[in-house]
Each structure stands twice: as structure tokens, then as C-alpha cells.
Inverse folding.
């Protein structure tokens, strides 16, 4: 996912936030939180959803999330009382409130390939950036099985390539029969197993411009 807002460019593939002065320093938790807010913009994201994404299966105090939001605001030069980008939704959570648009360079890269999952008769498109698989509400593939964790695994799509990573699930994730223990590059036709669920990864690459058909006379 590549997004431009204000004087900033956000790139989930290279995991960079750049401003006029160059790269902005963000901790991994702050970068992940900003990713979640940009993905759901302009909708608000609950505190519980953000905490579950940043600290899966771990109890943390509300102050931990507030520190992450404060770090993001500091990097963006944002003001909580007069926000340009990060809005506090009282009693609920946070939302990205700034004007934003997809980065044209990133959009062109995204157009080179379309990635998806086949699950039975379903076809699940994968977006640029993070795609969560599991039982959480924001999963691209919601799997109703007690053997699948809430945030079981994720597939990160960047520049037409897709990498899958297990998120500390109880029953693990396998690719083409091999249990993975770190980020693993996916290839077309790979079989993905999450508990009892079997999916197939597909990547369709563009082959160039459509030719104009000549009229017959």
C-alpha cells in the first residue's frame, strides 16, 4: 500500500514513512498502527482492534496504545487538539482523518500482478500491504474454526510479490506441506494450510496492453 497525505508518503512494502526531510523514524508498533488506520480510513478503528493487531494474544494497558499514537503524532507533527491526520474518537478508538490518495508509483506497481486466494468455490482478492487470515473481524478471509487463531497468519503483498507469515498461531501455518517458521515467499499454486483449512495462492500477471481489434470489411 502506498499513500500520499500532506507532505508525507507512506509505503507499506518498504515499510517507510517519508516527509520533506526524508524518512521519518517510527517504531515497528507505531508503523503497524499507522498502517491499520490508513487501511481503514476514514472509518474509526476501535482500541480493542488496534491492541489485538499490535499485541496479539497479549493483555496490555490502554497507556501502551496511547504511547504508540503519541509517537505517530510526533512523527507527523500532528496536534491531538487540532488534528490534521490522527483523530481521537472518544470512548471508541482512533481514525485517520486527513486527505489521502493512493501513490501513483505504487499504483502502477500494483497493476503488474493480481494476487488472490482460492478457498473452495471462493476467490479472495489480496490487497497491497497486509492481509490477515483468521477469526478477527478485519481478516480478509474470516475462518470460523476453533483450530484457527484470531490473527492466525498474514500475507503481505508488495510490488506483485506475496509473503506469508504465521502470527504465533497455536496450530501453525504450512505452505505446500511444510510448516513455516518465518516470512515465506509465495509462488502461484502454493497450498496454504491453516488448521483444517486449505487454500491455494494464485498470482496473475499483466501481459501488456490490450490490442485493438481491426474491423472486418
Amino acid at each position: 500500500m502506498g499513500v500520499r497525505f500532506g507532505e508525507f508518503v507512506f509505503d507499506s512494502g518498504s515499510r517507510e514513512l517519508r516527509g520533506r526531510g526524508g524518512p521519518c523514524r517510527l517504531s515497528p508498533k507505531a508503523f503497524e498502527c499507522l498502517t491499520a488506520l490508513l487501511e481503514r480510513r476514514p472509518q474509526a478503528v476501535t482500541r480493542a482492534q488496534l491492541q489485538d493487531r499490535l499485541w496479539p494474544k497479549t493483555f496490555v494497558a490502554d497507556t501502551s496504545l496511547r504511547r504508540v499514537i503519541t509517537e505517530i503524532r510526533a512523527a507527523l507533527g500532528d496536534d491531538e487538539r487540532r488534528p490534521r491526520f490522527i483523530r481521537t474518537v472518544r470512548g471508541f478508538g482512533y481514525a485517520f482523518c486527513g486527505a489521502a490518495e493512493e501513490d501513483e508509483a505504487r499504483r502502477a506497481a500494483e497493476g503488474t500482478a493480481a494476487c488472490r486466494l482460492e478457498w473452495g468455490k471462493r476467490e479472495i482478492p489480496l490487497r497491497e500491504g497486509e492481509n490477515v487470515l483468521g477469526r478477527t473481524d478485519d481478516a480478509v478471509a474470516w475462518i470460523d474454526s476453533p483450530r484457527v487463531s484470531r490473527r492466525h497468519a498474514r500475507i503481505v503483498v508488495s510490488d506483485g510479490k506475496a509473503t506469508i507469515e504465521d502470527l504465533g498461531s497455536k496450530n501453525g501455518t504450512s505452505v505446500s506441506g511444510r510448516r513455516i517458521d518465518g516470512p515465506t515467499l509465495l509462488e502461484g499454486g502454493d497450498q496454504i494450510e491453516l488448521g483444517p483449512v486449505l487454500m491455494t495462492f494464485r498470482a496473475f500477471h499483466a501481459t501488456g496492453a490490450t490490442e485493438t481489434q481491426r474491423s472486418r470489411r
About this structure: Confidence is low (pLDDT under 50) at residues 108-112, 207-217.
